């Protein structure tokens, strides 16, 4: 009897994915260390990205131009990861395909080499190894001894989810033991937020400390942002909530781009709207227009 399960050389494919991620960043004149805006990268490469109200992860549509469709129903960091995954299908010349919903972000259906390639590409494109090493070193943290909120802070810097960073650190880069990764994976996002904020909330949270290097920070209306102590906002896009020992807590209030300063540190917070009647669904429309103050669609 022949088995239907595909077997493939994961190590060879992972190397291929890493090289493709490096080459793709280089083609777009991005460095090989810092966090990137995946939507900006797609735009540079001529790939059109659109958010839709469809219950899925993402979809790649081959053609001229190539198109990526992402579900606006997924959490913000998940959308960025899904975009990088679909860009992986594009870079490797795969055909049009749809990625069905994966409720468990940690589950990786890696029986399919194309999906393995796209996932591994996404990991390396969003979280380059030199960038992660720098992110831990500059804070004097190490992956193996980092606390859940330290891991979460670095996940926020690279615009990915907590579990996604853990998977990449352990399975992709061998920078974290499987045992420690498993222990950290057991911490739920809700418990993490409660630990950081001192009370439970179902609203998404982004943590930005003064070691964060990216010039922009993507959020959406209702997102909580924990910014460095002393942070001041230009404009009315963020509403101050309260001071915490580790920083100042704000809530994203309206769409647009707003500068935040804390001493020498500065970042442009780019806030996308959410659906008015369904505030848990994100912006629907072309990615390039997601921060416009007025609703604008195709
Ligand atoms: Zn896929």
TrEMBL record:
Tell me where the signal peptide lies. Answer: none
Positions of the IrrE N-terminal-like domain: 42-168
Task: Spell out the protein name for this chain.
Answer: ImmA/IrrE family metallo-endopeptidase
Source species, please?
A: Bradyrhizobium campsiandrae
